[in-house]
Predict the structure.
Amino acid sequence: MRKNAYLVVWWMSQVPYAAVFDNRVAAEAAASVRNALMVTLSGGDAKIDSVLDWYRRDDSGQPMPAEWRNILGQIQVPWTAKRPPALKAAGA
């Protein structure tokens, strides 16, 4: 049985960064000082147990669960991959 892993994701100067921790306390400390997202992974099939947003906190200072935000409308995700159109050689 595989133990938990913790993925910490944060942004600095418009550049995304990520780190993986085996220790929950170390992951929480890293997420806390960076106002990061912390994703808890478990199981051999990499099941995601939780995503905590250390930027958003409740009244007691605990991180809140991350949530999807509908800021600019519905998120559009292509469910099927589209092939790019075939390019013709110059002069063909």
User: Anything to note?
Assistant: The CA atoms of residues 75 and 81 lie 17 Å apart. The chain is about 10% helix and 40% strand. Strands lie at 5-12, 15-21, 37-42, 47-57, 63-65. The longest strand covers residues 47-57.
